Amino acid sequence: MMDNLTALRLRQCREDSRETLEQIGQLTGVNKSTVMRWERGDTSKINLPTLYALARHFHVDPLWLQGLSDDPTEREDVRPSADVVPVPIIGAVRAGCGGLVFEDPSGTEPVDADMLRGGEEYFWLRVSGDSMTPVINDRDLVLVRRQESVDSGRYAVVMVDGEEGLVKRVVYNDDWIELQSVNPYYPPRRFEGEHISAVTVIGLVVESKRKYI
């Protein structure tokens, strides 16, 4: 479901601008019932290009609209071009009351718009640690598409017993799931039987990017 803070701020912006549900629907190409669901937090079907278009329309910072900033002031440097969408960078994913908590936002990183599937949520995660070296190094960025499952053998962000999100290769069958590191100094972690439920998939790693500064 969409973050409740985002829903609250969307409604606040619309009411402050004295616009109707129908007017916002016409702006974004949806009907008024969809806008109403956005404002109630009843749906996650609002993609990043739409959210950034709404932020531009309301003259607010899209990170504020996403609940990743406390400052609503509009910033020119986060406006997307027609072909590029800025996606938020976060420092950690943790379990919190009522769902996931995305901590330590530190700006945005551009992503080609054609890489983003409509209606999906994306974020950049700054990797901490060397368990995935040399494929993904400490401080690298990974682009994550939020989803609850991935194909066996894919890289994903996962949680184990609600701990901070980890980037691992996920391998599984009907009886077990194994979290594999690339660095040979870190042995695989296998969960079997009832212990499989300790592993929660947060999203699929779509891309990695090395930042030198």
Could you walk me through the main structural features you see in this protein, from its secondary elements to its overall organization?
This protein is an alpha+beta fold. The protein is built from 5 helices and 11 strands; from the N terminus they run αααααβββββββββββ. It has helices at 4-17, 21-28, 32-40, 48-58, 62-65, and strands at residues 84-90, 92-96, 99-103, 108-112, 122-126, 141-146, 154-160, 166-172, 176-180, 189-192, 199-209. The protein has a 9-stranded mixed beta sheet, with helices on one face. A two-stranded antiparallel sheet has the order 2-3. A hairpin with a 3-residue loop joins β8 and β9 (176-180). α2 crosses α3. The two termini are 35 Å apart. The mean pLDDT is 83.
Which features would summarize this protein structure in a list?
elongated, 5 helices, 213 residues, alpha+beta
Task: Provide the fold topology.
Layout: H1 4-17, H2 21-28, H3 32-40, H4 48-58, H5 62-65, E1 84-90, E2 92-96, E3 99-103, E4 108-112, E5 122-126, E6 141-146, E7 154-160, E8 166-172, E9 176-180, E10 189-192, E11 199-209
Parallel strand pairs: 1-5
Antiparallel strand pairs: 1-4, 2-3, 5-6, 6-11, 7-8, 7-11, 8-9, 9-10
Largest sheet: 9 strands, mixed
Structural class: alpha+beta
Number of strands: 11
What's the arrangement of strands in the largest beta sheet? 4-1-5-6-11-7-8-9-10
Order of helices and strands: HHHHHEEEEEEEEEEE
By DSSP (H or I, 4+ residues per run), the number of helices equals 5
Proportion of helical residues: 10-25%
Question: What is the terminal-to-terminal distance?
Answer: 35 Å
Strand content: 25-35%
Mean pLDDT: 83
Radius of gyration: 18 Å
Form type = elongated
Oligomer: single chain
Extract low-pLDDT stretches: none
